[in-house]
Amino acid sequence: MSFASQPNDSMVLSYLALRKAVGAIGILLPFVLVVGHFFEVGLKIEASISAYYWTNMHDVFVGSLCAIAVFLASYHGPEKADDFAADLACVSALGVALVPTTPVTPNGYEYGPVHLAFAAAFFLVLSYFCLALFRKTDPTKPPTPQKIKRNKIYTACGYTILACIALVAVLKLTAFGRELAAWSPVFWLESIAILAFGLSWATKGEAILKD
Length: 211
Hints:
Blueprint lengths: L1 H40 L16 H17 L5 H19 L3 E4 L2 E3 L2 H21 L11 H29 L2 H4 L5 H20 L7
Antiparallel strand pairs: 1-2
């Protein structure tokens, strides 16, 4: 019996490890981009996360998103909704990585419409993972105390991502974006959303609050 259970146990551990890895990429990406860029130009925050495509951190930006996309392509949840969401997030992540933002001046960047669509889809699917898929529980069993705590993290992360998307839209569609451009508000909002994404996946991988 113990030999029969080993493959399943190994598969579970592999999925948990992959979730932790994806979470780590999300948590570290904004910091790595800023620090890596620092060694070339000093302390200069670009207008957005995607703007680092045009810097010396191009390979890190593209490679990180492609790594996330590969995992999402291999992700299979308990229901078809999980698989569809993962596939959509995979395509969106590849789109963000491979369809660059449009440089407009030496000191600023703006999204191309295709890139913006991919980015919006990516973040929306990530919020769906947090608010719907990750919070599911086995209806035949009561949730454990740790699962209840994890669900609170998923909820907070999901709404954080949605709030950041909404604020980025406000900045892009109003004069506030131009007035605050010197502070790179889109970069900070995207960084918060990516950190929330990373935290949710690390939690799903039971890096914290493990049963």
